[in-house]
Amino acid sequence: MSSGKQRPSILDKSLSRGKSEVSLTAYALLFSEMVQYSHNRVTSVNELHNKLSELGQSVGVRMVELLFVRDRNYKRETKLLNILLFVKGTLWKSLFGKEADKLDRATDDERIYYLIEKEPLVNRFISVPRDKSSINCAAFIAGIIEAVLNSTGFPAKVTALWHKGTTFMIKFDDAVLTRDKQLEGR
Amino acid sequence: MSRQSMRSNDPKKVSGELFTLTYGSLVAQLLKDYENVDDVNRQLERMGYNIGMRLIEDFLARANPGRCYDLRDTADKIQQAFKLYLGVSPSIGSWSPGGDEFSVVLETNPLAEFVELPDHCLSLRYSNILAGVIRGACEMVQLEIMAWFIADQLRGDNVTEIRVKFVKRLEDAIPAGED
């Protein structure tokens, strides 16, 4: 019935203002289905983390486009610190309605930064079985962060750890640090 | 100065965009895993069914809707649930003459924002999870129904329409050895 019709292109629609909200229950249940689905298809904790991170990455890539177009007047960040502050502030606010709790730099390795979130949204309803205490569903959010950094030109690896709540360990490629130093010099 | 959208910081709510994109990544993952669109439709329905079974508890506790005496009551409650959980108000209509079928019509579909169906996925029922949710929730209140999509904005229709058909009332099974 509808296959012959000309479908309107998504680009014909105006960009949403980002004010829509859905119930937390709806989100929690959807996320838990996703975790279960992923869980059924993997054999180890590591694989589960990777699966969730992959799911998060497809969210992250789209958030970059959305936020830089809507909130940042099409201007991307080039400095390392600024992109981290973007993740901690703008990104976190539009996803979770608040800023992330803390941003830290590792003392022994200049490539590593820590983003600390005491109680990530996705972990609020997940009870981790005792014998698998290393599982952290915030791997999904780690995937979001990783995709945001990668698609803005700051290749990094992001892992979620249990530490002061949940900590996202962000490890940048050497090239990023080198470039950042060059930018400093100007 | 970034134009931050001022969302009401209600702890019981999450950003609609996070929800939309999360759902989108799930559908994309299913398409990768199954390769066959019909299987994806089925899997989404099954996941929705699981969600519906749990969602009904929350709905009964929160909205205190009382009992449904006929299908019209049920339709009203479904409408109410859409409002509560997805923040949209569907309209109910197209009753069959027998009063055992109706349509839930969505002007806007919160799941389908930012979504465009590629040409090889035209038979994908993108929001099929909703049909599953309705079925799962009704089953927990002893209504067996069928729910399926008959129109979808993603496929060029004007509205998104879910058809709900009453099948039968489920009776409490008597535990074995108690009769």
Please give the structural blueprint.
The complex is a heterodimer of chains A (186) and B (179).
Chain A: E1 21-23, H1 24-40, H2 45-70, H3 80-96, E2 102-105, E3 112-117, H4 139-151, E4 156-162, E5 166-172, H5 174-185
Antiparallel strand pairs in A: 2-3, 3-5, 4-5
Chain B: E1 13-15, H1 16-34, H2 37-63, H3 71-86, E2 91-93, E3 101-106, H4 128-140, E4 143-151, E5 160-169
Helix pairs in contact in B: 1-2, 2-4
Keywords (chain A): Endoplasmic reticulum, ER-Golgi transport, Golgi apparatus, Transport
GO cellular component, one term (chain A): TRAPPIII protein complex
InterPro entries (chain A): NO_sig/Golgi_transp_ligand-bd, TRAPP-I_su5, TRAPP_component
Briefly, what is this?
With 186 residues, chain A is α+β, with helices and mostly antiparallel strands. Chain A has helices at residues 24-40, 45-70, 80-96, 139-151, 174-185, and strands spanning 21-23, 102-105, 112-117, 156-162, 166-172.
User: Could you tell me how far the N terminus lies from the C terminus of chain A, measured between alpha carbons in angstroms?
Assistant: 61 Å
* Percent helix range of chain A: 40-55%
Approximately what portion of the residues of chain B adopt beta-strand conformation? 15-25%
Low-confidence stretches of chain B: 1-6
Mean pLDDT of chain A: 83
State which percent range the strand residues of chain A make up. 5-15%
The termini of chain B sit apart by 72 Å
- Integer tally of domains of chain A: 1
Rg of chain B to the nearest angstrom? 18 Å
Strands of chain B, count: 5
Q: Spatial order of the strands in the main sheet of chain A?
A: 2-3-5-4
Global geometry of chain B? globular
Please report the first level of CATH classification, the CATH class of chain A. Answer: Alpha Beta
Specify which chain pair forms the largest interface: A-B, 48 and 50 residues
Low-confidence stretches of chain A: none
In sequence order, what are the helices and strands of chain A, one letter per element? EHHHEEHEEH
Mean pLDDT over the residues of chain B: 85
Helix content of chain B: 40-55%
What oligomeric assembly is this protein in?
heterodimer
Largest sheet of chain A: 4 strands, antiparallel
Count all strands of chain A and give the number: 5
